[in-house]
Write a structure and sequence with these properties.
The complex is a heterodimer of chains A (about 160) and B (about 575). Chain A has about 160 residues and is of the alpha+beta class. Chain A contains 7 helices and 5 strands. The chains are: A alpha+beta (about 160), B alpha+beta (about 575). At the A-B interface, α4 of A face β13 of B.
Chain lengths: ~160, ~575
């Protein structure tokens, strides 16, 4: 599978790199743009970024792996982010996440984001989603689900399976 | 593990021109230290607290700091308590009642009773500064840092290759505690990562000092390593699918202060405390990197670089480092052979001496190896002069690199030139010798340490000789054709000197015993020279060297005793 960046995106990024006194500083913006376009940052995208900015791939890999919101693998169609910060944790977000995982056949003890083999769901524990008053909170793709219980969870799963 | 300049290199020698000195106090004792000292690149930079304490004769524990690498300041182990002269509101120094300057100790701004340390590796000294590397506050800081570094460490010392030369172990003895305060589950990281063809990485043992990253980026020029992930999941890694593979990767094993980076070659071979360490030289090229041979019971287990700023800094290349296995090869020449039959030194040397004594002037030629010691080449030259023999050495050229590897693959080409065995261009007289054999003018050939069938004297030509005397270490086509085979020694089995490509004369010492009847070449050459020329020589390498230095202009004025571990420059 060959990796190619559309000409207009490449031109945009080339121009972007000129905004920085040191080309390397544009790494983060490159990764943002590539993730927005491809949905995730693949190994090829890292190699491409490195060669564009005159770096070694490992230099870009360091940044990519530092930020958890950069995705190295494609996400599922429905991305379930369960908040694990204090209010939500106290309100039972741990059990909520475990519920998602069990229903989807995922490991409820895993440290990282997990995607179902059919590519329909990704379940992930995340830090504060800034709606502590309505804990526990789940974010489904770009939509916030407040006061999420097992019923809401099952509704999310049902919707995503379709 | 004192000889190896590996994880711990000595700081570079201060630059010769006297630089401005400033007075500071280390643990209450006044010392005068240069204001500037060479940094890892040899450029003058403000002296750091760590360097100042070293000059004062002390030591500050550290992991990430290395005098030959850029300062990173990330391990925090070198934290020390310190103070600077107190200034009044009028910006004038404040004095104690006894007239001494009052010292303002560095403290936490919000908690003035708690000392605030600074990392000694990256903090410049200033006049009147007081450093307390042994105060209780400093010790407390070290203990805390060490405890933090050990939180996720697997404590698998019994099966760790670094055990015995590990800074975590050493500092744990000084600053550690017997019990652990940590009850949580440890973070698990990748184990036995195949980082490259010669390196295995255990990420759980790593303290993230980044010495390996800095070395490969700034010294080897191969920016191949980095830290991926975040927080307690930080791991050293190469790019997925890429291999950490340059000719200097094994230096990262030396640099690694813990057991994270291990050499595939040395891994699980021998506990380091059983190794005898012998100062030696690498023989794989003309650079002559200083080494330490680690051996046990006659077997060589590893080479490590030894610091010599005039030659190899604290590094050596992987190919040179791993080029030791031939020393213990099973097919080593171990017997004195006379026309294929096992003989003794006494009878073989007697026969050879008689033959050479009777040989007509000019009927003998000598091809000595530029892999032999200077002393041996000198003795061979003496012999050749008496016999009116043509002499030469076999050139061995290859690729050079930007860091250490020289194009000349002989360790002692300059020794061959200085002793007069070879001319400026090694091997230029070999065709003449071949012609001499062909015409029948040369009836006896003496070959040391080289397979001449690969250097212009074919096996057919060798068959024409009346007498072929060969000394070597491993069998080859020339030793097969020889009438006399004299088993010689690897450099690790004898003492002597080499002159490197830059003309530096360097000594090496004996690490292991030779196999079977093999003897150091200089020993039996000394006998031969005595028998043939009638000149008496010296039976010790010291005496032999001093005699040579008197006779060979290139070594004029050098005495064995003056040649220390770092070597001396010859006049060439």
């Amino acid at each position: 599978m060959s990796f190619s960046v559309p000409a207009n995106l490449e031109a945009e990024l080339d121009e972007l790199a000129t905004h920085y006194p040191v080309k390397r500083s544009a790494s983060l913006m490159f990764l943002h743009a590539l993730q927005e376009h491809f949905g995730h940052v693949s190994k090829d995208a890292v190699v491409w970024t490195a060669s564009k900015l005159g770096l070694q791939p490992i230099n870009v890999q360091e940044i990519l792996t530092f930020y958890p919101m950069f995705r190295q693998e494609p996400l599922g169609k429905t991305h379930v982010k369960v908040c694990r910060t204090l209010s939500c944790a106290l309100a039972g977000s741990g059990g909520l996440r475990a519920h998602f995982c069990e229903k989807l056949g995922l490991d409820s003890h895993a440290h990282v984001a997990q995607t179902t083999p059919d590519g329909k769901f990704t379940v992930e524990f995340v830090e504060c989603l800034a709606d502590c008053g309505n804990a526990p909170v789940v974010m489904v793709n770009e939509e916030l689900v407040a006061k999420a219980g097992m019923t809401e969870a099952d509704a999310i799963l049902e919707k995503g399976k379709r | 593990m004192s000889n190896a300049a590996t994880t711990e290199a000595k700081p570079a020698a201060p630059a010769p021109p006297p630089v401005e000195k400033i007075k500071i106090k280390v643990d209450g004792r006044e010392v005068e230290v240069p204001k500037m000292l060479p940094n890892w690149q040899g450029k003058l930079e403000a002296t750091t607290m760590l360097q100042a304490v070293q000059i004062a004769g002390g030591e500050v524990p550290h992991y990430c700091y290395h005098p030959k690498l850029p300062v990173a300041g990330n391990c925090r182990m070198c934290l020390v308590e310190f103070g600077t002269p107190m200034m009044g509101p009028d910006r004038k120094p404040v004095f104690n009642e006894d007239g001494s300057p009052k010292i303002a100790k560095s403290v936490l701004p919000y908690e003035p009773s708690t000392p605030r340390g600074a990392i000694a590796c990256a903090t410049p000294i200033s006049p009147g500064m007081e450093i307390y590397p042994n105060s209780s506050a400093t010790k407390q800081m070290r203990e805390a840092v060490l405890e933090s570094l050990l939180i996720n460490h697997p404590l698998d010392c019994p099966i760790c290759d670094q055990a015995g030369e590990c800074k975590l172990q050493e500092y744990s003895v000084q600053h550690g505690q017997a019990g652990s305060n940590f009850v949580e589950a440890k973070v698990h990281k990748p184990k036995a990562v195949d980082l490259g063809p010669r390196i295995v990485l255990d990420d759980e043992r790593c303290v993230l000092c980044t010495r390996c990253i800095r070395f490969t980026k700034d010294i080897a020029g191969d920016d191949a390593l980095g830290i991926v992930n975040r927080g307690s999941y930080n791991t050293i890694a190469a790019f997925p699918g890429a291999k950490f593979d340059n000719n200097y990767t094994l230096n990262t094993v030396d640099l690694c202060p813990v057991g994270a980076l291990t050499s595939k070659d040395f891994r699980f071979q021998m506990r380091v405390w059983f190794l005898k360490e012998t100062k030696s030289l690498c023989t794989s090229c003309g650079t002559g990197c200083n080494t330490v041979i680690g051996s046990r019971e006659g077997k060589v287990y590893r080479y490590e670089p030894r610091q010599n700023d005039a030659v190899n800094s604290t590094w050596m290349c992987d190919s040179g480092r791993l080029n030791y296995k031939w020393i213990g090869r099973e097919d080593r020449l171990q017997d004195v052979l006379v026309r294929g039959q096992k003989s003794t030194w006494a009878s073989a040397l007697k026969e050879i001496s008689e033959k050479l004594s009777k040989a007509a002037s000019g009927s003998v030629a000598v091809i000595a190896s530029a892999r032999q010691t200077t002393e041996e080449l000198y003795l061979l030259k003496k012999l050749a002069t008496k016999l009116g023999a043509l002499t030469d050495s076999v050139a061995r050229m290859g690729e050079a690199d930007k860091l250490l590897v020289a194009a000349d693959k002989n360790p002692n080409s300059n020794g061959a030139r200085l002793t007069g065995i070879a001319g400026a261009e090694l091997g230029s007289a070999i065709s003449k010798i071949a012609d001499g054999i062909h015409s029948g003018a040369i009836k006896t050939l003496v070959v040391f340490g080289d397979d001449v069938t690969k250097a212009g004297i074919s096996a057919d030509l060798l068959a024409k000789l009346e007498t072929l005397i060969v000394s070597d270490i491993l069998p080859n086509a020339t030793t097969k054709a020889a009438h006399y085979v004299l088993p010689g020694c690897a450099h690790a089995e004898k003492r002597g000197t080499f002159v490197n490509v830059k003309g530096r004369l360097q000594k090496f010492t004996k690490a292991v015993e030779p196999k079977g009847d093999a003897r150091p070449e200089w020993e039996f050459l000394h006998e031969l020279v005595h028998n043939v020329t009638g000149q008496n020589g010296f039976i010790s390498i010291e005496g032999l060297f001093n005699q040579m230095a008197k006779e060979v202009p290139g070594f004029a004025g050098i005495e064995w005793a003056q040649v220390d571990d770092q070597g001396v420059n010859t006049i060439s």
